[in-house]
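Report of the visiting student (M.T.), summer placement. My assignment was to run the structure pipeline on a short list of targets and document each run. The first record concerns Sarcoglycan alpha/epsilon N-terminal domain-containing protein.
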Amino acid sequence: MRRRQQQQADERAAMRCCAGPGPRGGGALTTLLLTGEISNDPITFNTNLMGYPDRPGWLRYIQRTPYSDGVLYGSPTVENVGKPTVIEITAYNRRTFETARHNLIINIMSAEGMYRK
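After the run finished, the structure tokens were exported:
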């Protein structure tokens, strides 16, 4: 049980770290996100396909509260295979009003040959 709690804390720190430095990010929030420190500040994340106002149709995002983790999930289609998908993640600290941006590159591969015995 203790190991699972530590793993969850590490995952939260990693997600907060993912929002760290971007071309327009900076300041104390970036430092906080880079160090992986967990704070009690409410942080919300917004996601979009780079250069577009929304995510690809196959990709979903959920964050229940500003104090909870954000989750990206979805199933790309055959048309997306071989095309890198760049997702912009923007973090907003709702207490200090600081922002940070990070690009997440998703490389989509074919499932053929993935399940070799």
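Residues 62 and 71 are 5 Å apart (CA to CA). The longest strand covers residues 84-93. I thank the supervising group for their guidance throughout the placement.
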